[in-house]
Amino acid sequence: MSPMSTAAMNAVDRAKSGAASGVVSMSRMLGGTVGLAVMGALVTTIGRSKLDSSLAQLPAAARIKLASALGSGAAPNGHASPHVVHALHHAFVAALAAGLKVSAAVAFGGTLLALWLIGPLRTQAAETRASEQRAPEAVTA
């Protein structure tokens, strides 16, 4: 987070640094919150789908109760048949694996986007440095 904050502060005028700091902090918090909510919803939905398919013989109310215990990866109160416990564990692991794959894909996409967006800035910075080295500084007496 520090390099991101430093880059943002260096990219704006000092008079606007307070606003820039606020925008960076707000975007970081909002991104984390929305990302966590989306991933939680995705994992929960996939887990419930896996439970519904593997425990179709159970009543819907029982599956909903089991799905609410899915986050721990264990049977509620420890009272369940081995088949139900296995289905819960399988649903939990499958949902978590899918969530991690989606997270990895989003991180990879973000990396590619950042590299694509930073490329012109890097070129511009190199041109600026080259022009500063070519132009001699004026010396005042």
Write structural notes for this entry.
This protein has one domain (2-134). Helices cover 78% and strands 0% of the residues. It contains four helices and no strands. It has helices spanning 2-11, 17-54, 60-68, 82-134. The longest helix is centred in the last third of the chain and has 53 residues, at 82-134. The radius of gyration is 26 Å and the shape is elongated. The two termini are 45 Å apart. The relative contact order is 0.07. The mean pLDDT is 82.
Describe what is shown at a glance.
It contains four helices and no strands. With 141 residues, the chain is mainly alpha-helical.
Low-confidence stretches: none
Helix content class: over 70%
Give the tally of β-strands: 0
- The domain tally reads 1
Structural category is mainly alpha
- Number of helical stretches of at least 4 residues: 4
Shape, per Cα inertia axes: elongated
The average pLDDT is: 82
- Strand and helix order: HHHH
Strand percentage, roughly?
Answer: under 5%
| Terminal-residue CA separation | 45 Å
**Main pleated sheet:** none
